[in-house]
Amino acid sequence: MTTPTATNVAQGDAHVDVQAGVVHGDINFYRLPPNPSPEEQFAFALKYLDARVRDQACELIEKAVAGGYVTTEVQFYRLIALLSGRTLRQLASEELDRLTAICASLPHLDDHDEWTAGLKAIIHLLAPVSAAETDLVVKEIDALNRRQRDAIYGHLEALLEGAMQEEMWRKSVALADSQRTAEDRFNRVWKFFHPTPAQPRTLPVQPAAVALRDWLRAGAGAAVFTLAVVQMIVLVAARGTLDPFLGLLAALVGLAAFCVGGADRYYRGTRLRAKEAQIRPPQQRRREAPPGGFARKVDRLFDRYFRRYVPEGTDRAYWLDQTAGIRRHLRDEVVELYREQRIDAERVAWLVRHLVGDVRGQWERDTLTSYRQQLRNPARTTALHVGGLALLAAGSLWAVPAVVTSAPLSGTCWFVLAVASAVPAVRSSFRIVAEHRRVADDQAERNDKDTARWAAYHRWCHKLSDQPSDTEMATWLEGDRKVLVDQAMQQYRLRPSQVIAHAFIEAPAPSCKKARYPQGPWRYSRYRLLLFLLTDDGVRQVNIDLDFETSASRTTQRLNYRFDAVAAVRIDGIATRQQAFELTLFNGEPISIQVSDPDNGTLQHDENPTKIAELSLDAAGLSHTLHVLEGIAAEGKEWVKHRRDRADERLANLASAIRGLLD
């Protein structure tokens, strides 16, 4: 086989723009209780193992064993966690020593419980397996219960060499391919990255705001008007005739009818103008909100959903133009409701969709301006307003001459005073009545909005109720990774037995979403993967963009280089901030990719930022990959030979311990 030449490409992806993270899920899923018992430590170790956080799982299992919790189930998972994803020759010296010690500490495997059967299967894998024995070992594994079988095929697929490795890899890839689409992944995975919806709110109803001058005018005017009317009655009574009394009574009845009809007419007019102002397109362009702020993000949400939810049969441009006013009104309401809560705009995206969908529904039902019909003056109001005014005028013409003739000077003064006090009193009373009716109607509208929003909120929460667990996310990601490794080996026409080791550098892709459980590793909606396949001839590197929400992948680059072409491997940056992986080849620019990003204020009160960063890098397999690449950078091709020689010496001790168990 021709030795591949060294190729260097400088990657321009050192900067990764990751959207604000989401921390949600079961808050106690990864949170150990204070002073945990060995049983609790083991239970949490299994959760981390399922999440592919192998180092943390090993640590917790060893603590459980040190605490005296040693069962065949514990020993089974102790071996799984130690050997996960690696060959025996990839284990460090101290890890081989631990493996030997574990095997030496196992009781004779002659019991017949299910976990002893699982331990026997792993021990058979650790023992040298001939080609003729391959089928027997595979049948032994297939006879295990599903949990043990999936653990072995899911974690120990790379453990062996030769024909057994080929069969284990085939089984492992088949399992991964079925698991990566299981549990309705593509309809649920996006929900993991969706933030917890903010509960609905509605603006409180503004209390009645009546100016002091209106109260004074209404009160003083009513008092003065009453005094003037009484004095006119006294003057009419001095005449001793009944007709003027009937005229005054008609005028007062007309005034009362005019006030009732006029107050209703005034309120409907003011209410209509307020409603029209809410949907009227803005007269001038408003200055944009500051970039990156909550208000700007809400602007983008409304723009996005108004462009998406266009009524059927309506031109988008016309729709956007006609709803500019109501869009602005609704946007201002949402910003006012949630600005002070310091929440992410995506948490109110459900409310924006509900509001936009409601506007579209009203548009399609032609009820967007139904308030115009509702606020139109009814015949009763017009009759009271016009008829009252006519009766007031007729009564005044009937009674006033009698008042004036009874006492020309005082009668005239009392009439003028009655008119002068009634006009401002009536106007102020219209405003007072309208303001109180406004409060009542606003409260009714608020109650309707509140009911509709809570219903929409509960519908959305129900839609998110089957949000995948972190374990499911880890299983899907591991399935994707394993299938990608298999595809890469097929592209290079490599058999699993020809690959000394494979390793990943896993990083968030630009503009991806991210989320995690408390005390858990970050998961991303899109990944940028660097896959390294180590063979006797050198390194095959495949750069892959993975859309985790759709499982679609795209190979962006393939590189081949010799072991001795690797000059240096390093991680730059602090664990709690941005970290970048850098691989330097002798004849080119370094290959760099950002592997972590800061938490951006998502840490909870009891979370350690360094620990969270370590968990995320552990889940990404970075420590294992660095160990392999750093060894290559230090020793070149000799690293492979020396590693095998050193491992073979240790494996001889392991073989004797295994023979004692199988005898």
Automatic annotation (TrEMBL):
Residues passing through the membrane, by range: 215-238, 244-263, 382-400
Record bears the keyword Membrane: yes
Keywords annotated in UniProt: Membrane, Transmembrane, Transmembrane helix
Protein name as catalogued: Uncharacterized protein
Record organism: Micromonospora orduensis
